[in-house]
Amino acid sequence: MARIKYYYDTETCKYERLKVSTWDLVLNTLGFLFISFIFAIALVYVYTKYFKSPHETLLRRENEELSLYYDLLNQEIDQANKMLIALQERDDNIYRVIFEAEPIPYSVRNSEMAGITKYKQLLDRGLKREELIVSTVAKLDNLKKKMYIQTKSYDEIIKLAKNKAEMLASIPAIQPLSNKELTRLVSGFGYRIHPIYKVKKLHTGCDFSTPKGTPIYATGDGIVKTVASNPGGYGNEIEVDHGYGYVTKYAHLDKFNVRIGQKVKRGELIGFSGNTGSSTAPHLHYEVIHNGKKVNPVHYFYIDLSPAEYQKILELASVENQSLS
């Protein structure tokens, strides 16, 4: 039942019934509806801001998963690029040097694909996050292009190799000792802290930490050039002349298993590791000398290592630590 309102009339000194006009009813109703509408909007805003619908929750979860997969994909692309760079370095600095072939120009290896117009079809679709999509597709295209160039380079190397089997057998191409777990390389080529003088000096080879008496093998076919015992320096050392400008040195040995002038094959036992000369711990110091210049031996471990293992050896050899001799 509607509530009846009265007011006191001072002229008649009576309570008179309050009459509400139709216009007042309309205004009151419109005011109520307006306030209700504002309140409803505020309520919906708060609800949608803090309480997501099942559909929105699902979309958010899908977006998070896609973002994760995108990051993983980019990591895989970056890793593949690193592996390809390692193969390119081997190709230019070893294979092509060995076969006296000109390295592939940097501009050819690293030329970018055609401009953004190549991906116009993707852009025309009005995709969201199109920059991410285009950049990823561009990375994949460039990776495929570099891989194609590398395969063509290997085709050329294969043709050169057919006539140089003897040279290939002579070039140092394996590690000088068993190192299947890749844990024995402790100091690489380059400037390292000298273990005695405690200053940075050029370390002209690789140090392999290994127990005394570990078998040491020739890394390529050749003729034994030096078998010498020194109280300091390299200690007991062997040098093998492989021809084609290559000589390898094996230092700080304990015992010899070859003599000067002896012909050796790759993988043949030539001595045993030790701790002679200016050595601070049992190890093998191994050098590769090409045309009279000492070069990084790591670049010649290309027969007994997979690309992933070669990448790991590169990382270990690049650490600037203290050498053992």
From TrEMBL:
Pfam families: Peptidase_M23 (PF01551). Keywords: Coiled coil, Membrane, Transmembrane, Transmembrane helix. It comes from the Bacteria. Residues 63-90 form a coiled coil. CDD domains: M23_peptidase. GO terms for molecular function: metalloendopeptidase activity. The keyword Plastid does not apply. The chain crosses the membrane at residues 25-47. Gene3D superfamilies: Glucose Permease (Domain IIA) (2.70.70.10). Residues 202-297 form the M23ase beta-sheet core domain. This is M23ase beta-sheet core domain-containing protein. It comes from Sporocytophaga myxococcoides.
